[in-house]
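Dear colleague,

Thank you for sharing your sequence with our group. We've completed the structure prediction you requested, and as agreed, I am returning the results in plain text so they can be pasted directly into your records. Please verify that the sequence below matches your submission; if there's any discrepancy, let me know and we will rerun it promptly.
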Amino acid sequence: MTRRPFWLWPNLLSLDAPLVAVVWLWMFVKTWQVVWLPDTLPWLVGVVVWCVYVADRLIDQRESGAEWRRLSSRHQFHSRHKVLFGGALVMAGLAALVLLALLPRGLWGLGTPVLLLVVLYFFLAWVGDSELSVILKNVVAGVAFAYGTSVGVYFYRPDVHVFRFILSPEVLVFALLCILNITAIDIWESARDRESGYRPSDVVLTALLFLLVLGTIIFAERGDHHLDPFFWAAMAAAGSLQLVNLFGRGWSLDLQRVMADVAM
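Please find the predicted C-alpha cells below.
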C-alpha cells in the first residue's frame, strides 16, 4: 500500500472544511467586534460542518457504485472505512444536538434557514448530475457554509437585525468565495476526468475570482476601516485560489484540492 502524505490526512478525515469554518468564524468575531461568544459555538460549527461533509462523501461513494477508480482519494477512504465513519457520524450528530441545546433558542430560529439550505443541497445532490443541478448545488453549498459559519457570531452582536445580516457585505463576499472554491474543485475534477484539458469554465472561474478581488478592494475602500482586514483576507484567499488554478495544473488532484483549502 502506498503511504499517504501527511498533508492529505485532514482532507481524508474531512477535517479541512471544519478547520476553514472555525478560522472564518474567528474572523467574523474580530470583524464584528463581538465581545463575548459561548465556547460551545465554535465546536458546534466545526462538528456540524464535519457531519455534513462526511454524510455527503458517504452518499457520493454509494452512488458511484462500480466507478471506483473515478472516486477521489477522500471518497475512496470514506468508502473503505464507511462503518467507522457511519458510527462517528451518528455520535457527532448527537454531540451537535447537545451543543445546540446549550445555546439560546433565539439562535435556533436565526439558524433555521441554514438547515433548510443543507436539506436543499442534499436534494439537489440526489436529483442528478446535470450541469444546472451541479451549479445550483455549488451555490447552495457555498451560501450554506458562509451563513452557517457566521450566523452564530452575528447573533451575539449588540445590534442583531435579520435583513442586515442577510445583506451583510462580509457574509456575501465570503459566500461568493466559498462558491468559487467549490466550483474550482469541480472544474479541476471534470478536466482530469475528461482528459481534455481545462474547459471554458476555467476562464469563467478566473474572471469571477478577479471580480471578487476587485469587489473586496471596493468594499475595503468604501466601508468602515475596522472591516478592512476581513476584506483583505478575502482578497488574499481569492488571489491564492487563482494561483492554485493557474499553477496547479501539473499537480496531483489531491494536492490541488488541499491547496484550495489552504488558500481559504
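Summary note from our side: The chain has a mean pLDDT of 84.

Kind regards,
the structure core
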